[in-house]
Structure formats: C-alpha cells, structure tokens
Amino acid sequence: MIDQQLVQEHNERLVTGVEDDFAALSVKLARVGVDADAMVARAKGFAVALPSWGLGTGGTRFARFPGPGEPRNIFEKVSDCAVVHQLGAATPTISLHIPWDTPSDPSELLGFATERDMAFDAMNSNTFQDQLDQPHSYKYGSLSSADKGAREQAIAHNIEVIELGQKLGSSALTVWVGDGSNFPGQQDFTRTFERYLESTKSVYQALPDDWKMLLEHKIFEPAFYSTVIQDWGSSYLAATEIGQRCACLVDLGHHAPNVNIEMIVARLAQFGKLGGFHFNDSKYGDDDLDSGSINPYQLFLVFNELVNLEMSGRPFSPFYMLDQSHNVTDPIESLIYSAAEVQRAFVKASLIDREALAAFQDDNDPMMAQATLKAAYNLDVEPILQMARYQSGGAIDPVIAYRASGYRAQCGIDRPAAKTLSSGIV
Ligand code: AFD
Ligand code: MN
Ligand code: MN
C-alpha cells in the first residue's frame, strides 16, 4: 500500500480547488433540480471489480513488453489491486482467473486480501488452454468438445472453481470458452451446442443457491469460423435453458463491429438475463483497450440503460468487472483511470432528465430526445468524482498521486523479474 500520509498531503494541496469547482457545479445542477451531494453519494457507492489478469503487462500474439516490478503471483496482484483501490476508491473487489491465480492456501489469500480491505468478485474458469498435467486436451474444445473426457474434465474444473470461490467469499462463476471451429463443416453447430448445454447444466447443478453463473459470449477468436457462444442470442438461449440463476455477461469488446451494444443491454435487462459486464473499449475487435478510451459515449449509453433498469424497480444486481489488457501503459495507472471512466459514465447517466426524455420520446421529438441525453453527457462531472474520492479517503487525482508515490519503482526493486509471468490475456 502507499503511505496514507502521502495521499493526505496530495489531497491537502488540491482540495480547495475541488471545493470551488464542486460549489460551482452544485449551483449549476441545482438549477435543473439535481442535488450534487446526492450524486457524490452515488459515485461513492459505485464499484467495479479488478481483473487479476490485468495487473501485469498484457501482450499481443506478436510480443509482450513487460514493465518493471510486475506482480509475480496472486499475492502481489492483490497488493497492486489494493493500491488501485486505495487511490481510486472505486474498485474494492478482485475477479480471479483459475488456475492462473490458484492459491495453495485459500484462507491465507483471503486473509491477505481482507487485511488490505479487498474482497473477491466473480471467479473465472479457464478451459481455453491446456495445463501441464491435464489428461485431456482442449485443442478441439472443452465444455462442448466431442471428446467426453475433455468435457468431463472441463466440468470438473468449473466445479473446482466454484468450490474455491466459496472459500474466498465469491458469489459468481463466469464461464467463457474458446470452443468453436476454424473450418466450415468442422463441427455440427447443433450437436456442439447440445454438448455445451449438457456440460454447463452439470456445472450449474453444483452452483450454490446464492451464486450466479455468468455466460460470456464472444464473436470470434481463438476460433475463426464459428464459436459456440458467439453472440448474445446464443448466450440468452443457453442461460435460459440452464436455469434461473444463469445470466449473460456482456464484454464490450466481444461484438461485431458497429453492433448496438446498449440495445443488447436493454433486451437482456428486460428479460431478466443481464448478469454482468466486462468493461473495456475497442476499435476493431476484442482489443481490450482501456474503458472509455475509444468510445466514451457508448459507455454512457450503456449506463443509460443500466440506470433505467435500476429506476424501473426490477431486480438489479449485475456484476461489474474491468477486463483489459495493458500493453503500453502501467497497468495500475490504466486500471485507476479506467475505473474512474466507468464511474463517470455511471454518474453522467444518473444525471439524465428521464421524465423529459420519456416525454420527448412519446412526442416523437428525436431532436430534443437526443439533446436530453447529450445535456447529461456533456456535463463535466469531474468535481463529483474528485469529491467522491476525497470523501472516501482516496486521492483527488489518483494517477498523479500514484506517480508521486514511487510505488512502481519500489516494486521494480522488490520484485526482480521472474522468467515467466503468470498473468495472461487472450
Ligand atoms: C477473453 C474473455 C474472457 C477471458 C479472457 C481470458 O474476455 O473474459 O476470461 O479473455 O484472458 O477474451
Ligand atoms: Mn471478458
Ligand atoms: Mn475478451
């Protein structure tokens, strides 16, 4: 962790400016009947989970350029996550990837995290790569494989992930499989999907009553012709077949280009099958770029749907996670900044005048309807985010505070690079 004294000094230098900006924004918002303090409270209540696999430098299929002081094991990843949360105050939980993060002693890991005020969010299973000692290969698929042994092995792995998650206080299993085909004719679409359903139903039977199972779809990659859960339609069908506590997870980078993601969100929400998100941004495919770095308006429109859902009074508790690969930035900086971008979209979406919007929609007034959304989107809510961080004990400008702390340089000394880093990204 970073010395809290440094954070305090950082805040003392900036707080007067923040108070002035916040006062000005409060006056502006009061004119349209919005209480700025209530928005600060909302921002403080917002949380998004950190991906354990996002703490090391990612890479492409061409190369990986590691940075200094990268975490070499799950404990060092948790330490880095704690720093992200200490400064950004929006990321109190960690989403683990198994077996990359498998602890030898789960209670030791839980204790280590708890001491740092961190908890564990959804667990991710991994049946898209072979482990050294496993008897059956996933080369031709896992939960949907034609090989019964591979399917059984994948089912058993998912159940082990649930059992580990129970020991760590998690309450969800996220299942993403790379299963698919590279050639027309390679697989029978129907039989493959049937096998997937049969396997996931077996996993679901082991799901504790208070757990959720989240299905993550992805249009392509690693399979380049067909993918068993390639779109939200397949995901919805599977989640519906599997059971009530199974729902769809939307990764923002897993869609065909130009797909209207916010409408997918609305559809899944309407039918009670919106389970969670992997936030990131993309320009071309599953780019895993930092949230809000390419298309912040899309992120805002997604949150417009989420706030709508929240206001509707229907049951609402999607899992929010970041899922990014940091290739050219310090992962800690990217995660701090990205979490704040997601939080910003949430706050802006909370400022939409929904009554006016509904009236413009019913009057068929597209100009004023879209202007109502833009009015909220164009507001600078930075003082609200800064105030939320300040009141939560975080840093007003967390990336600046992080750089000033020298944390990365210290990690560079404390963590001499290992030959292989355990983190990975697809
Ligand atoms: C995949 C998915 C999924 C998975 C991850 C593995 O986004 O969330 O866990 O990459 O690195 O593309
Ligand atoms: Mn994902
Ligand atoms: Mn992905």
From TrEMBL:
<dbReference type="InterPro" id="IPR050337">
    <property type="entry name" value="L-rhamnose_isomerase"/>
</dbReference>
<keyword id="KW-0413">Isomerase</keyword>
<protein>
    <submittedName>
        <fullName>L-rhamnose catabolism isomerase</fullName>
    </submittedName>
</protein>
<dbReference type="GO" id="GO:0046872">
    <property type="term" value="F:metal ion binding"/>
</dbReference>
<dbReference type="InterPro" id="IPR036237">
    <property type="entry name" value="Xyl_isomerase-like_sf"/>
</dbReference>
<keyword id="KW-0464">Manganese</keyword>
<dbReference type="InterPro" id="IPR013451">
    <property type="entry name" value="L_rhamnose_iso"/>
</dbReference>
<dbReference type="GO" id="GO:0016853">
    <property type="term" value="F:isomerase activity"/>
</dbReference>
<keyword id="KW-0479">Metal-binding</keyword>
